[in-house]
Amino acid sequence: MTAYKYLHWFLVFTACCTFLLIIAGGLVTSTQSGLSVPDWPTTYGHFMFAFPMDQMVGGIFYEHSHRMIASVVGFLTVIAAFWLWKREERKWVRLLGLAALGAVIAQGVLGGLTVLFLLPTAISVSHATLAQSFFCIMAVLALVTSRWWRNPSPKLEEPAHGISLVRLSIITTAAIFIQLILGALMRHTNSGLAVPDFPLAYGQIIPSLSPAALAQYNDVLIQSGIRIFADGPVTAAQVLIHMVHRAGAVLVSGFVIWTSVRLFKISAVSKRVSRFGFVFLGLLLVQVSLGGLTVLSQKAVDVTTAHVATGALLLVTSVILSFHTVKVFGWPSRRTIYSLSSEGATA
């Protein structure tokens, strides 16, 4: 049992290192350092950990640090997968450990391809998306190896409030995940400042995408110093990507608030699950604020990176909440769903 406790805390440590890796990746993007080291897997011809420290300056510092942290996380994941395979009796948890190992290998390959193919959008977005997925896998592994998860407990009955909390938390997780993909697309298409004001967009709720309007937008961006002529004009696609991300933020906010309200209503049933409501709303408030500040600060490095990191925390919180609801309440049966709908129809 003691050895299993060590396994759990090792997975917690690996998950924390993964979060640090996401922050490092956010810094690379925020500082536009993705091609500061143009070769891979070497760094200017050096073996990664043999690169001279005194040459880690400017963008090289961010990119090379990101690579070193990624290597450490990869090594920790190899240990975790092997440890789970030898110690864990649940087959699905062992397979999840192997999935984590496969994900970290794929993540390394995508990172290398991102550099070798000069930051293509599709690969860069896939790299960012897989990073979030890997973080969630490691967090889930840490959760399901905890004493709380492994101790058997009877399923509790969730108060009837329409859609089950299990399904609602999963839907919320999916919405947050899609929003993070849109955020990665916005970063890697240079659409972050395609709309330079907030909460309006060029003084409108929904900006026009006509050629005349785009010409006016580009004049605003040039005159304000946000862009220079060498950057090329902002396109309708960039403005659209930016606005879709904002619309996604509104949708996600609605789901998070809805889920949090539902969580507060079950405080008498499960205080452990109910507390997620406070975490959810707190992270949402921080994330929305950082999103607005990212635009208003013209993508200040610290603000933009914090926005990426908080998005990752919001996603992993939603994933962990989903697993908590399944553990505490179980999957809602069809009979329960039918009963709820019948009661609603009768009322």
Strand and helix order: HHHHHHHHHHHH
Beta fraction: under 5%
Low-confidence stretches: 334-347
Q: What's the average pLDDT?
A: 93
**Into which percent range does the helicity of residues fall?**
over 70%
CA-atom Rg in angstroms: 22 Å
What sort of overall outline do the alpha carbons produce when their principal axes are compared? Answer: flat
Q: In this structure, how is the largest beta sheet organized?
A: none
Total of DSSP H or I helical runs spanning 4+ residues: 12
Structural class: mainly alpha
As for the number of domains, it is: 2
* Amino- and carboxy-terminal Cα gap: 51 Å
How many beta-strand runs? 0
Task: Describe this structure as you would to a colleague.
With 347 residues, this protein is an all-alpha fold. It has 2 domains: 1-149; 158-347, no CATH class. It is 71% helix and 0% strand. Mean pLDDT is 93; it is low at 334-347.
List keywords for this structure.
347 residues; mainly alpha; 2 domains
